[in-house]
Amino acid sequence: MIEAKGLYKIYEGHEVMTNVNAVFEKGMINMVIGSSGSGKTVLMRCLVGLIKPEKGNVFYDGVNFTRMSFSEKKKIRLNMGMLFQGSALFNSLTVFDNVAFPLVIHSSFSKMEIQKRVQFCLERVNLNYDVAQLHPQELSGGMQKRVGIARAISNNPKYLFVDEPNSGLDPKTSRVIDKLIKEITIDFDTTTVVNSHDMNSVFDIADRVFFIHEGKKWWEGVSSDILSCNNNELLQMMKASGHLIEDENHTNG
Amino acid sequence: MNRAFGRPDNHRVLFSRVMREMNVIGIESLGIVLLISSFIGMVLTIEIAYQLVSAWIQDTVIGEIVSDTTMLELAPTITCLVLAGRVGSNISAELGNMKITEQIDAMRIMGINAESYLVMPKIVASIIVIPMLIIIAIAFSIGGGILVGHLTGICSYNDFMEGIRTSYKHFTLIFSLIKAFTFAFIISTISSYQGFIVKGGAIEVGKASTKAVVQSCILILVFDYLLAQLLL
Q1: Is A73 in Cβ contact with B111 (below 8 Å)?
Q2: pTM
Q3: Pairing state of beta strands A14-24 and A2-11?
Q4: Hey, are the CB atoms on B103 and A88 less than 8 Å from each other?
Q5: Are the Cβ atoms of A105 and B9 closer than 8 angstroms?
Q6: Torsions phi, psi of A137, nearest 5?
Q7: Which of A12, A76, A69 is nearest to A42 (CA)?
Q8: What does the pLDDT look like over A59-110, one tens digit per residue?
Q9: What span, in angstroms and rounded, lies between the C-alpha atoms of A145 and B157?
């Protein structure tokens, strides 16, 4: 379980996140939604410790992560996996080396064990082991996302973070990646936090939803309650995505 | 930058990264270093002969001045100014590109000390390999001088060698290596720092590369003066 308590973040005198409180449950897909520039990425970067909030703390299973030193954070980070918006694969390394990277650095696995683990991770994300010798730039966007997921799960993480998994992907590939995230969350029993503005993902895979707007959390609940919420901003977002017909409170299908 | 000198996550990986960087910084720069140092030696020989040699001055003076000037100033300083352009821009562009594409963030999420993983091998490799390049540059510069002296009839091989033997002091070579270590550290740290602080996109990466080269060159010249003032 990951808990955000009273997070504030200020950039150049402008408050980009204001008093955000949220509990991200284990074994569930916790989806943070909001339009572009709403503060989703800032929240995720605070959660993983890439930026430090001005106020507030993040707790991993009750342990205060935000106030830890760099070396203390490492222990928690060994249990983290993250898929970045642009995949963030290492261009100079092959797919194999990308997926093996955390294992080579941190584990005492033999070469054979690492090879088996990489093969398992690639097959788990429905990639043929033949792609292992390719470089990231030789792959399609969807395949890069899969390799990113394979790398994120290679160290068997307890916490999985996914930033805009569907950006730059066609709707069909987006659904495939969504399904993959759902399967991995169940298989690995991870606490999964997904940032998205894709309402299809919300209805397809989200267990809990957190709606962020102008740096504040405006609504939270289970995904099935989202259509009956009375938050205007969220309703407008759903209308814009075609999930809610104008002036009617039901789905388009 | 402190983290760059922190304990590495995996010593075996550090060793392989240092080897890779030594190849990139050293072997891949060898061609340009050989070319520049040979021509410096050749030009220097002709210019010294033009300015100094007369009936009153022995030909051996050409060898003396070429070897001393090469060791004290031209080989370490000119070579490192060229390396600041070639290696420095390469380092800052590589790290800057990794920064803007979130590859460095990805390393941090994996619990890796990104500064130590990326920067330390570059600094260690530079400190090892740049002094080696300087020694090679000295040899080729003097070699170029001997060759031109012999081919043009300015100075015979024996006179040139006699001049080198007369003027050679161990300290001159040590001073040259002290400069090489200092300049290697400047090039690798400034370029890495500029790469690591990039924010934005491709244009900012280009600007960071330019800044890295300019700042490295200025610091090389400043330390060139300071070392000469302090040690000679």
Answers
A1: yes
A2: 0.87
A3: antiparallel
A4: yes
A5: yes
A6: -70, -10
A7: A12
A8: 999 999 998 888 888 889 999 999 998 889 999 999 999 999 999 998 888 9
A9: 65
Taking the Cβ of residue B210 and every Cβ of chain A, the question of whether any pair is shorter than 8 Å is answered with no
Residue of A41, A105, A109 best to disrupt the B interface, most CBs of B under 10 A: A105
H/E run at residue B150: helix B114-152
Nearest to A102 among B3, B110, B113 (CB): B110
Looking at CA atoms only, how far is residue B133 from chain A in angstroms? 26
DSSP letters, A149-169, are HHHHHTT--SEEEEE-TTTT-
Chain A: which residues have CB within 8 Å of chain B? 48-50, 70, 73-75, 77-78, 80-82, 84-86, 88-91, 101-102, 104-106, 155, 161
Torsion of CA A52, A56, A62, A64, to 10 degrees: 40
HSE, side-chain direction, 13 A CA sphere, residue A136:
21
CA-based end-to-end distance of chain B: 32
**Under an 8 A CB cutoff, do B102 and A88 touch?**
yes
- Residue B69 contacts A, CB cutoff 8 Å: no
Contact A86 B113 (CB under 8 A): no
SS3 A85: coil
3-state secondary structure of B5: helix
Report the C-alpha gap between B146 and B229 in whole angstroms.
30
HEC assignment per residue over B89-137 = HHHHHHHHHHHHCCHHHHHHHCCCCHHHHHHHHHHHHHHHHHHHHHHHH
CB A150 within 8 A of CB A124: yes
Question: From the candidates B3, B20, B109, which should be mutated to test the interface with A, based on the most A CB atoms within 10 A?
Answer: B109
Question: A191-221 pLDDT, tens per residue?
Answer: 999 999 888 888 889 999 999 988 899 888 8
B9 interfaces chain A, CB cutoff of 8 Å: yes
The helix (run of H) or strand (run of E) holding residue A232 is helix A232-241
Q: Which residue of A has its CA nearest to B101?
A: A88
**Pairs of CB atoms within 8 A across A/B:** 59
Cβ–Cβ < 8 Å for A81, A160: yes
- Contact yes or no for B133/A118 (Cβ under 8 A): no
Inter-chain contact B10–A106, Cβ cutoff 8 Å? yes
Residue B46 makes CB contacts below 8 A (sequence gap 6+) with: B148, B152, B154
Written as six digits, the tokens of A201 are 């993902």
CB atoms within 10 A of CB B15: 13
- ipTM associated with this complex: 0.88
> Which secondary-structure segment (H or E) carries A116?
helix A111-124
Quick one: angle between helices B114-152 and B170-196, nearest 10? 140
